[in-house]
Design goal:
Layout lengths: L7 H6 L5 H14 L3 E6 L4 E4 L1 H7 L10 H4 L5 H7 L3 E8 L2 E12 L2 E11 H28 L14 H13 L6 E4 L6 H11 L7 E5 L5 H9 L17 H4 L4 E5 L6 H13 L1 E2 L8 E2 L3 E6 L3 H6 L5 H7 L2 E4 L10 H15 L10 E2 L1 H9 L5 H15 L4 E2 L6 H17 L4 H20 L3 H11 L3 H10 L5
Parallel strand pairs: 6-11, 6-12, 7-8, 8-11, 13-14
Antiparallel strand pairs: 1-2, 1-5, 3-4, 4-5, 9-10
Helix pairs in contact: 7-8, 14-16, 18-19
The structure holds adenosine-5'-triphosphate.
């Protein structure tokens, strides 16, 4: 670095200025600089010092006109008059002041006419670096948060259920987890479709990559395309500068879960089909394609075949998605799972409810369990979970009783019993059959549902295995 006082080019522009004016002009510039500046002449006398230099180093302006070495014996600046070498980033500390200094000779026509020292407060630099560090930490926290948002929580062994249909779905999920083939999960709302999708992702080799859930019904269809595929720079008015990455790209190497696929617009379905076939996406407003490796799991509570018949859903996409399909049965068709689900929910609500004085272990009265097993659960497992969370908050002690359940569901129950009492009086035979049915269900729950477990259940009931099977058929018990 070589500082040439008043470069030729600038000098020519100001030749009309009287010399004194030019000096004032340069002084004003030096005084307006944010860094500290000190200038010595060829004999080592201080000629110029700006207010920032005083501020940073504590050296006062009365040094002007004095020899720098006399005032500051350790100063390196005079050395530069001799060796003509620049010094960069020299660390200085005086009292409580810390700063770094750059020094350079001032050369005109190959003659050293002085030297300049430019300093920057280290406290300022410190502050900036601390700020930078804090911002970096914040950025990392946000990144971790984003990563955790896109991580699947559940695994296949967290899926509770002994019902045949559910076990079948778990079995298929396990077998196909590592394939790249798309999966279609169907089932009513709240049956556990997303739970299955997350568990499949976690069972696959993609488990450490993102799992991106997208609710196709929740995003307005005009926006869905750009959300899924992203958009290029200036793709439309109000588009973000530089474009935006889409959810497919975010899911690269991982899994995208397209929930409520039946609600996707017909046009977009065609674009999705292309992605499935080509494994490439094109951002809105761009012409180039980007290759991706994304596993697609779609889900719907609708009857896609009916939608295909009504031409609301593309037949070609339906067949492409339906290569592997999982049907999750509604809870009312797997009442045998209700008690297991309840006990698991009570355990986790104990963990979540870390309120002081909260009971160590909840129990549930027989009457309440019977009621919950008989209830139809239109909102499926999600509704059951909400009811159990509510009841465990309402229970004063450790036992959950029917009065702790939300009135919304018990109202129907009491009305049902009232009407039953007045209109139909159970015969002794009916009452005995009902008791027998409940007793068999309870016994099977205790022993399990496979053949060996059924043998044990039959033995405990004091009947043969064949009689047990007859009774299961007669009482329509699906175990
Ligand atoms: N078999 C199961 N075992 C344990 N928990 C379950 C089971 N099925 C569902 N759940 C729980 O029920 C709740 C609802 O499940 P999920 O969100 O997966 O349902 P969904 O079918 O995707 O619902 P929607 O169609 O409304 O999106 C979740 O809290 C989930 O963990």
């Amino acid at each position: 670095m070589e500082v040439k006082f008043m470069p030729e080019r600038i000098k020519n522009q100001y030749t009309e200025f009287p010399l004194e004016n030019q000096i004032e002009w340069w002084k004003a510039i030096v005084h307006s600089i944010n860094d500290g500046v000190l200038v010595i002449d060829h004999e080592g006398f201080v000629r110029l010092i700006n207010p920032e230099y005083t501020q940073i180093t504590g050296v006062t302006p009365n040094i002007v006109g004095k020899k720098l070495r006399e005032y500051r014996p350790g100063a390196q600046l005079p050395e530069i008059l001799i060796d003509r070498k620049c010094r960069v980033g020299v660390y200085r500390k005086t009292d409580k002041r810390e700063y770094i200094v750059d020094m350079a000779p001032i050369i005109i026509n190959d003659k050293v006419i002085g030297a300049v020292s430019v300093c920057k407060s280290l406290t300022e630099v410190h502050k900036l670096s601390l700020e930078l560090k804090k911002k970096g930490e914040k950025l990392n926290q946000l990144k971790n948060k984003i990563d955790s948002l896109y991580q699947a929580k559940y695994t296949l062994n967290q899926i509770i259920g002994r019902n045949g249909g559910l076990k079948e779905a778990v079995y298929v999920a396990e077998r196909v987890a590592n394939s790249i083939l798309p999966i279609l999960i169907t089932g009513e709302s709240g049956t556990g479709k997303e739970l299955f999708a997350q568990a499949i992702h976690n069972e696959s080799s993609r488990k450490n990559q993102p799992f991106i859930p997208v609710n196709c019904a929740a995003i307005p269809s005009a926006l869905l395309e750009s959300e899924l595929f992203g958009y290029g720079d200036g793709a439309f008015t109000n588009a973000k500068k530089g474009g935006k990455i889409g959810l497919f790209e975010m899911a690269n190497n991982g899994t995208i879960f397209l929930d409520e696929i039946g609600d996707m617009s017909y046009d977009l379905q065609a674009k999705l089909l292309r992605v499935l076939q080509e494994r490439k996406i094109r951002r809105v407003g761009e012409t180039n394609e980007r290759s991706l490796d994304v596993r697609i799991i779609a889900a719907t509570h609708r009857d896609l075949q009916q939608l295909v018949k009504k031409t609301h859903f593309r037949e070609d996409l339906f067949y492409r998605l339906n290569v592997i399909s999982l049907q999750i049965p509604p809870l009312r068709e797997r009442k045998e799972d209700i008690s297991d689900l309840i006990y698991s929910m009570l355990r986790s609500s104990q963990l979540n409810l870390s309120i002081e004085n909260s009971p160590n272990e909840y129990t549930i009265s027989r009457e309440t369990m019977n009621f919950l097993e008989e209830y139809e659960w239109p909102g499926n497992v999600r509704e059951l979970k909400n009811v159990i969370d509510y009841a465990s908050c309402m229970a004063e002690g450790t036992e959950i009783r029917i009065e702790h359940l939300p009135q919304r569901i018990t109202k129907k129950h009491f009305n049902m019993y009232e009407s039953k009492d007045s209109s139909t009086i159970q015969s002794l035979k009916e009452a005995m059959e009902e008791t027998e049915r409940n007793f068999i269900i309870d016994t099977l729950k205790r022993f399990g549902s496979d053949i060996e477990e059924k043998k044990k259940a039959a033995k405990s009931l004091g009947i043969s295995l064949a009689t047990l099977y007859n009774k299961l058929k007669r009482y329509k018990i699906d175990f």
